[in-house]
């Protein structure tokens, strides 16, 4: 979807990047710029900078960078068109849609419209005395949910009918293919007819933080289906790895802590009991995207996973994921109930509140897990347990935390704190040495451009890539440099570039320059957020230089030509040597022939 330039400019004019990013990150003024902790990676020293003059941002730690649109793509896990729509809604700018775009494929907007109709249909079915009898009996009588909480979550019921929803959507003008792409119907291989995907299920609409119904989760109530829960697959309007059930409610109640559950019913039950900071992932394991989303809204996550073995394994895995984004994690350990819903029904909301206060730290959870694996009455098992726990403690950054954990292990194992501290310090030295070696390796690779995922070809053409970086950085910064290239004052074409990433950047910049004029934001249409970060890095590198005039541009163009010529000569050299060898052999053969 190509957004008209005037619309993009209107969005940018109304969206100050400091205000935008300041709603996600605590920013502090640093001269003419603003600094803060990067929202895209865990860091102890702030390396994230917002530049009001250029309405851009850049993290000198993870190299995320770009403009307001790039930031929203990363922060909200959106693609380029969705980021534009997000900021348009935020700034009150209307985005026109052309007739050609209306005909082309299934739009996100159309998915949301269909989902809203479906959600209303399912709700009407649930409250129908005849059609919704089974669904209401399950929710209201068996699960004890009140009518207000059922209405609050927009719960519904999909009747045991193959064409109930399909008929409704067809009357509204939607095609079978559109319904299939929105994951609301399937197409029979035998008859070719559309049929309802969700049947005889309690329906949980998934609503995003802006109020759109983006997907559904359906729970079987008849017991006939192999799948207890059936969830929407990814559609043009939904990616399950980027959404959390009930985040639309929880986001307003989770500044201090958020409760992460395994199932939708647990979430609804917790909200009904007054715990409105509960969410759940949607039919998929916790992802890095989920963790980043949660880190935007809360400081601490309490894992309220099922108490069975699978739930505990998931809790171990989740702790590692949350550690990457710097979120504090606590573990809820329920006795006498398998999940939060059952616990509240058995013991009440107040007991659950007390349980939350007693939730274990991540370390205590790991401690109990290690101790449960080893019989510490046996010396060899005690040694193994001590080794595992010292390894865990050695990874802890805070010295105060390490000391507390060492004392806890000492009490449990009956080993002196001095011995445990010695082992932890030895492991710390080992990890520090490993880290330094890794940094050296990364620095060496970086110097040679090895391991560069954005521009992998740079490793084979270090000098050419360096010249290209200078050229692209200068073109991004100054209109006069783009004009000099456009008017051939500085002769340069896409064919002169060695690496394909820089060639793509050059072509994209010049295509805009030749057309309506260059605008950094439009690059997001053709480049990923990571690639946009690299382009932002190239611009920032030039901003740090005192000399960025035409002479620098000419010098970089000449350096590129020389590097390319040297590379061509080098590539040709092996062939020349081979030809010389063959010529020598032919000469010897002729000489031998003459002698005979």
Topology:
Blueprint: H1 5-14, H2 17-22, E1 28-30, E2 33-36, E3 48-51, E4 56-59, E5 65-66, H3 68-75, H4 80-91, H5 99-103, H6 108-127, H7 133-142, H8 147-152, E6 156-158, H9 164-171, H10 176-181, E7 185-187, E8 194-196, E9 201-207, E10 213-220, E11 229-231, E12 244-245, H11 247-250, E13 258-261, H12 264-272, E14 278-281, H13 288-297, E15 300-304, H14 309-324, E16 328-331, H15 340-347, H16 349-357, E17 360-361, H17 362-373, H18 379-394, H19 399-413, H20 417-447, H21 462-477, H22 479-486, H23 500-514, H24 529-543, H25 550-595
Parallel strand pairs: 13-14, 13-15, 15-16
Antiparallel strand pairs: 1-2, 2-3, 3-4, 4-5, 6-9, 7-8, 9-10, 10-11, 12-14, 16-17
Helix pairs in contact: 3-4, 12-15, 15-16, 17-18, 18-19, 18-20, 21-22, 21-23, 21-24, 21-25
How is this structure best described in words?
With 596 residues, the chain is an alpha+beta fold. The protein has 25 helices and 17 strands. The strands form 4 sheets. Strands 12-14-13-15-16-17 form a 6-stranded mixed sheet, sandwiched between helices. It has a 5-stranded antiparallel sheet with strand order 1-2-3-4-5. The N and C termini lie far apart (78 Å).
């Amino acid at each position: 979807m190509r957004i008209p330039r005037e619309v993009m400019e209107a969005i940018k004019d109304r969206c100050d990047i400091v205000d935008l990013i300041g709603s996600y990150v605590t920013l502090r003024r640093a001269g003419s710029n603003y600094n803060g902790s990067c929202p895209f990676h865990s860091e102890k020293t702030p390396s994230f900078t917002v530049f009001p003059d250029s309405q851009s941002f850049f993290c000198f730690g993870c190299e995320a960078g770009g403009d307001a649109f790039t930031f929203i793509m990363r922060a909200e896990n959106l693609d380029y068109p969705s980021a534009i729509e997000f900021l348009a809604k935020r700034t009150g700018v209307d985005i026109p849609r052309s007739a050609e775009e209306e005909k082309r494929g299934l739009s996100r907007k159309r998915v949301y419209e269909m989902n809203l109709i479906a959600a209303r249909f399912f709700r009407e079915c649930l409250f129908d005395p005849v059609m919704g009898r089974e669904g209401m009996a399950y929710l209201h009588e068996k699960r004890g949910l009140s009518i207000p909480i059922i209405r609050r979550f927009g719960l519904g019921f999909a009747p045991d009918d193959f064409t109930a929803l399909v008929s409704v959507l067809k009357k509204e003008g939607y095609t079978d293919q559109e319904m299939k792409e929105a994951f609301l119907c399937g197409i029979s291989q035998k008859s070719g007819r559309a049929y309802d995907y969700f049947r005889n299920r309690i329906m949980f609409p998934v609503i995003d933080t802006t109020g759109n119904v983006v997907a559904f989760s359906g729970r079987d109530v008849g017991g006939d289906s192999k799948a207890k829960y059936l969830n929407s697959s990814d559609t043009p309007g939904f990616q399950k790895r980027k959404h959390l059930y009930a985040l639309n409610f929880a986001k307003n109640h989770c500044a201090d802590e958020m409760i992460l559950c395994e199932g939708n019913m647990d979430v609804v039950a917790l909200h009904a009991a007054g715990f409105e900071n509960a969410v759940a992932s949607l039919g998929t394991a916790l992802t890095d995207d989920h963790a980043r989303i949660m880190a935007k809204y809360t400081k601490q996550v309490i894992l309220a996973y099922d108490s069975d073995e699978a739930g505990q394994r998931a809790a171990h895995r989740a702790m590692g994921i949350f550690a990457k984004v710097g979120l504090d994690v606590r573990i809820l350990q329920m006795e006498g109930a398998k999940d939060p819903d059952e616990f509240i029904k058995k013991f009440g909301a107040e007991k659950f509140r007390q349980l939350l206060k007693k939730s274990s730290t991540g370390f205590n959870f790991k401690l109990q897990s290690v101790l449960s694996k080893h019989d510490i009455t046996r010396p060899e098992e005690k040694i193994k347990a001590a080794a595992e726990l010292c390894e865990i403690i050695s990874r802890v950054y805070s010295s105060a935390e390490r000391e507390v954990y060492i004392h806890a292990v000492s009490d449990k194992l009956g080993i002196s704190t001095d011995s445990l501290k010695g082992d932890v310090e030895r492991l710390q030295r080992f990890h520090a040495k490993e880290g330094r070696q890794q940094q050296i390796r990364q620095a060496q690779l970086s110097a040679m451009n090895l391991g560069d995922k954005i521009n992998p070809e740079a490793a084979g053409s270090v000098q050419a890539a360096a010249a290209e970086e200078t050229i692209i950085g200068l073109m991004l910064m100054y209109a006069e440099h783009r004009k000099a290239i456009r008017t051939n004052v500085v002769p340069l074409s896409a064919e002169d570039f060695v690496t394909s990433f820089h060639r793509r950047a050059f072509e994209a910049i010049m295509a805009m320059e030749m057309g309506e004029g260059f605008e950094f934001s439009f690059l997001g249409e053709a480049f990923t957020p990571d690639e946009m970060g690299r382009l932002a890095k190239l611009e920032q590198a030039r901003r740090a230089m005192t000399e960025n005039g035409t002479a620098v541009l000419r010098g970089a163009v000449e350096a590129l030509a020389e590097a390319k010529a040297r590379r061509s000569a080098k590539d040709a050299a092996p062939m020349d040597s081979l030809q010389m060898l063959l010529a020598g052999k032919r000469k010897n053969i002729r000489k031998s022939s003459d002698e005979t």
